User: Fold this.
Amino acid sequence: MEIEFRCNNVPSYSPVKNNEAVKRKTGINSYIKSAKDISCRKLFRKPQIDYDGTLLGCCFIHNKNFKVNVFKNGLLNALNSARFLYAKHILTDFSTPLRKDIPCYNCPDYEFIKKYNYKII
Assistant:
């Protein structure tokens, strides 16, 4: 089993009470977003699929999705859907305009990587 420790992205929800203990046991600072915590990487390495087969893309996009179902359309078809491919494109080429129909629209991780021209792959 693979275990992945993640930064606390929403400090108001289940706040970390002892940052030093978290850092000592996991090696991460729970208040600072590190490069490995950028959710956008999930689209390329570990695309997230909801319980009903809906392709979410990343774990940060829980209230939006790519309007394709892995169970109905198949995994390869879902990963090659127009919206999903466009999202991957905007994450690698920041000159590509972000569309409102892409779940990354208004995502703080996308805004972060674009602002700092951060390479995720």
Summary: The chain has a mean pLDDT of 83.
